Amino acid sequence: MTRIIAGAAGGSILAGVEGTGTRPTTDRVKEALFSRLETYGILHGAHVLDLYAGSGALGIESVSRGAATVDLVESADRAAAVAQRNADMVNRVLGWTAARVHRSKVQTYLARVAPELTWDLVLIDPPYTADGHEVTAVLGALESKLAEGAVVVVERSTRSPEPQWPDWLERFSDRKYGETRLWFLEPAVPENPSQRLSDD
Question: DSSP strand E in 6-132: where?
């Protein structure tokens, strides 16, 4: 059983996706991730993009904790239907449509989204079977989609090699939790190094 950990909808039970086609982020990893994001001050009022959303647990946690909106992108019909149930639940708790589900392949969604739309936080949790080239391609498609000061988080298996990051993105931190590694990235701002987020 998975719950929203904290925030306005904290304690609410999330529907899960049956079968083995999705790999939900563990509560331990989710708690550590959002603790770090809150330390960065990135969540409050943020516009969030959750790619390969599965049940939507990560994106829905973000709006429970104060993000303004989340776009949940998931291509598998069963998982997208579960994400919609969870989005409907958190929207009822919050009293507005904070979570929106897009049933689409990630790169198709990014190619067709309105060019003026940008996000403050992007969560990328592809299947562990997805290779590094796919991750790099998705990151490349985000170049014009990030707001100033945005943060990108990529979740991968510790057995997967570090992805090849596009030149315009810089890794500023990574953390290992059991079999999971989280990579934290931000747009490169070489002329203003003091504005970069700290690794600690």
Answer: 13-14, 47-51, 69-74, 99-103, 119-124
- Are 150 and 181 contacting, i.e. CB atoms less than 8 angstroms apart? no
Amino acid at 144: S
Return d(Cα 41, Cα 31) in angstroms, integer: 15
Read off the pLDDT of each residue in 28-40 and give the average, rounded to a whole number.
95
Which is it for the CA torsion 18, 22, 23, 25, positive or negative? negative
CATH of 2-15+26-195, one of 3.30.300.20, 3.40.50.150, 3.40.50.2000, 3.40.50.1000: 3.40.50.150
User: How many Å apart are CA 14 and CA 44, to the nearest integer?
Assistant: 22
Give the Cα separation of 25 and 153 in Å (integer).
13
| Cα separation, 16 vs 9, whole angstroms | 17
pTM of the model: 0.92
Tens digit of each residue's pLDDT (9 = 90 or more) over 127-179: 878 888 999 999 999 999 999 999 999 999 999 999 999 999 999 999 999 99
Per-residue DSSP letter, 194:
G
Q: Locate the domains of the chain by residue range.
A: 2-15+26-195
| Per-residue pLDDT tens digits for 56-85 | 999 999 999 999 999 999 999 999 999 999
